[in-house]
Amino acid sequence: MRTRALTMRPGSWLVWAVVVFFMINMVGVIGSVVLDSFGTTWFNGWTPAGYTGSNYSSAWNEFNLGQVMTVTFEITFLVVGLSLLLGVPASYALARRDFPGKRAVMLLFVLPILVPPIAYGIPLATVLYKFHLAGSLTGVVLANLVPSIPFVVYTMTPFIEQIDPRLEQAARMCGAPTRSVLGRIIAPLLLPGMLAAGILVLVRTFGMFELTFLTSGPTSSTLVVSLFSAVFSAGIRSAQSIDAMAVIYTGSMLVLLVIALRFVNPTQLVARSRD
Amino acid sequence: MSAISLSPKPESATAPGPTKPALRHRLAERGVDRTLLLILPGVIAMAALFCYPFIYGLGVSLQPAKGGVLGAYKSFFTDSFSEGTIWKTFSLAIPSSIINVGLSVPISYRMRGEFRGKRLLLTLLVVPITLGTVLTAEGILEYFGPVGWFNLTLQKLGLVSAGHPLTLINDYWGVLFSLIISGFPFAFLLTHSYLSGIHPALEKAAATLGAGWWQRFRFVTFPLLLPGLLTTFSLTFVLGFSVFPSAMMVGDPDGKTHVISIETYEQALQNFNYPQGCADAMIMTAMMLAVIGLVMGVRSLFYAGSAGGGKG
Question: How much is the CA Rg of chain B, to the nearest whole Å?
Answer without folding.
Answer: 27
